[in-house]
Amino acid sequence: MTISELHIAELVTRYKREHDRYRKLADFVSDEVKAALRDAGLPALVTHRAKDPRSFHTTLQRKCGRRRREQFAGELSEGLTDLAGVRVLLYRPEDKDAAERAILAKLELSSSRDSPREDHCKESGYRALHLLVEIPDSRAHGDRENLRGTCCEIQIVHLLDHVYNELEHDIQYKTPGGRPTELQGEFLVLLRSGLNTAGKGVELLMGETARALAHANAEISSPGDLRRVLEARFGRTLQGEFGRLLELLEATCREVKPREFDELPLDPEALGRAEQRLRELCIVNEAQEVGLIIAALWDSHGLEFVELAQAWRGRPGPSRRLLEQLHERLGGGTDGHS
Amino acid sequence: MVTLEHIVGVLVRYSGRFRHLDVFADDVAEFRSRDFAKYATYVPGAQPIALLTVRGRLLRVEVHQAHGVLRCSLDDREPASHAGLVGGAAFGAALGIALGAASESKDGVLGGLVLGMLAGAMVGAAADGQARNKILTLRYDERGDQWRVYSGTLLPWAKGALDPGAS
């Protein structure tokens, strides 16, 4: 049975009562997302909100023919997935996979949904990755108990695609017929072309800034800077827990500066050797390139890294798990000290 | 408060990896109370040195008075080889300055936290820069009576304040 105007009014009243809970969920998920992106060294802007009750009303009216009453019998977010929403605006489109991976290390895809992950690349030009997530059971306790099983929608989108998405959204939902006029269509093509050029500019500028940062040899004080400096050094995109890597380096290096890396086995060949070593040790590297860097530094810094990682609170992440495996297989490292 | 035994203990634990431990002078019980003179022999110099036998090991303590820091290391030589050395007064005077400098340097920021920094890494002759740069910051856990690695919010400050080579 589809929903009627009377039922919509009941649902709006119910949503107003539950609004605070969705706001709490959005706050929490947003904090988790920000922490995940910071640790991964991914530059991004993160916004969040709980859907406004008026917007809830409007959306229900628009979608009433496509929604059934039963969908709202349990959690309201079963019927409308974006009641709690977090938007991640990435500076670089190539960071999308890394962002998804970092976020899903902290939050779980909703198990109650058929398709909790949708990578949209629509004919209309809309592009965004949608993730429907829930707080893991292990963390849904205390004052988060009432968030258990409630779904939050995370949209991961390139900053420039977001501009296009918003303008295209206005055409689709705020103009009669929801289709662009001929002139609007031409302007959308023009906009897409301009955004592609701007995207290239952002990429070139960020690359040059990373090189300048390395050249200036300033102290590296953020996971994002560490990632950029190492990417410039290796000449490719890197992924992993850069926040953890920075913690390890800060605690074991008097200075964490680009030129100090010249003294360490941090070159493409060393990473290749580290990869080979992990293979020989039958260690599956879930820590990505950060894991290779850790493995490359094992002989000189491994034991100190292990001690530091053992003091980290919370569920062990990929970097800590890798260190524990290296320690288990190599013990005191190859220099013979334990 | 940290004692000379704690310092020797951590140097033994990290022997083969780090040569010395840098600590604030006023964090070491025997130096704060000046209850060490009867065990010590001295080597005078710009950074006066005291040599003390602790837990059967010879501990070398170099005073960096301007920074309020003591650089502690295990000396491989036998204690007898230092017999007859003088300089207790010079060491005592330098220590007095160091105690004041340590208190001034900390200026209450540590709030009772005792930090130390292992330095002088032994990572092979081919990597001098690496050895110079490599450190490990520790905090003394009084309740557990042991040193633990430290990577808290005071780390950047500690790396500067505990480095006798810093300008």
Main attributes of the structure:
heterodimer, A: 338 residues, alpha+beta, 6-stranded mixed sheet, disordered C terminus, B: 167 residues, 8-stranded antiparallel sheet, 5 helices, globular
How are the SSEs placed, and which strands pair?
The complex is a heterodimer of chains A (338) and B (167).
Chain A: H1 5-40, E1 44-50, H2 53-63, H3 76-79, E2 84-90, H4 96-104, E3 108-109, E4 117-121, E5 127-134, E6 152-158, H5 159-174, H6 182-216, H7 223-234, H8 242-252, H9 268-280, H10 288-296, H11 298-310, H12 318-330
Parallel strand pairs in A: 2-6
Antiparallel strand pairs in A: 1-2, 3-5, 4-5, 5-6
Chain B: H1 4-13, E1 18-24, H2 29-32, E2 40-43, E3 49-54, E4 57-64, E5 69-75, H3 88-106, E6 115-121, H4 128-133, E7 136-141, E8 146-149, H5 155-161
Antiparallel strand pairs in B: 1-5, 1-6, 2-3, 3-4, 4-5, 6-7, 7-8
Percent of residues in helices of chain B: 25-40%
Strand content of chain B: 25-35%
What series of H and E elements makes up the topology of chain B?
Answer: HEHEEEEHEHEEH
Going by helix content, strand content and strand pairing, the class of chain A is alpha+beta
Using DSSP, what is the number of strands of chain B?
A: 8
Q: Note the main sheet of chain B.
A: 8 strands, antiparallel
**Residue runs with pLDDT of under 50 for 5 or more positions of chain A:** 333-338
Query: What is the helix tally of chain A?
Result: 12
Calculate Rg of chain B over CA atoms: 15 Å
- Summarize the helix and strand pattern of chain A as letters: HEHHEHEEEEHHHHHHHH
Average pLDDT of chain B, rounded to a whole number, is 86
Note the main sheet of chain A.
6 strands, mixed
Counting helices, strands and paired strands, the structural category of chain B is alpha+beta
